[in-house]
Amino acid sequence: MIWSLIALFILQPGIAHDGAETGVKLFVQALLPYLLPYIILTQWLLKLPVSEKSSPAWMRYIKAYTLGSFGGFPVGAVTVSEMKKNGQLSKYESSLLLAACHAPGPMFIVGYVGLELFGDSMSGWKLLFAIHAANIVFFLFVLLLMASRRTPDGERKHSSITNPSSAPLLDAFKESSTIIILVATTVVFFSSLGSVLTNVIQAAASVEMGIVKTFVLSIFEMTSGVQSAALHFYGAPIFPYLIAAILSINGLSIHMQVFVIARSAELSLKPYVIGRIWSVLAVPVFLYILL
């Protein structure tokens, strides 16, 4: 498969270049301005020394959801992994919360999807509410699972693998730069790959370009898929629900970001996969109820 992809990139360098250029523009214009400031602040907060007095479990869970679900992808994975490393969460808790603390940032949904794609900030707010309604239902289910298995404090302390930072802000900048590079790399690669495969499918089969391009780009890179859907389906009755589904699918670019971060903290990915399936099914339904 890899050799086939290498051959495609060699045979269609212009398409690959255009896809990579599109990925760079998406990252710089649609992701970096919304993602970087929040990641720095989140990392700064998580790098601050934690009190020796153990806080109630529900407060740690709410902290993980609040920080992780309102900063955009992949801030949820970063938050949960960092809390696991500093001993606030166990491996079991972190694996479950990885699935629940996963949502696009409000600035991206309201500012980019709402204003630029829907042309209405209120529609963006409704979509954001639908996403978090589905996430909160799943979060409550996760809380029930964790309540049935109380984690001893010793297990959380044993999971800690890092010492408190002596310079939290500097470490926050360092960690944030690593995450941003990961996001940029995956966005550019999967945007280029999606463009090449779209061109190949169009050449091999007589199919409608709008449908193929939107489907393929949505599988590989969420933001590219959303832009393609806006280009080819804007004004159609299905348009808002198609956007909701694409945002719930996330795309391989975001999944790869989460997988890399989760694996670095040795977290299980099974709850995350289940959470994404639930999100794809539930978010369009909640949005339909709101609209």
TrEMBL record:
Keywords: Membrane, Transmembrane, Transmembrane helix. Coiled coil: none annotated. The chain crosses the membrane at residues 26-46, 58-76, 96-115, 127-147, 179-202, 241-261, 273-290. This is Sporulation integral membrane protein YlbJ. It comes from Sporosarcina aquimarina.
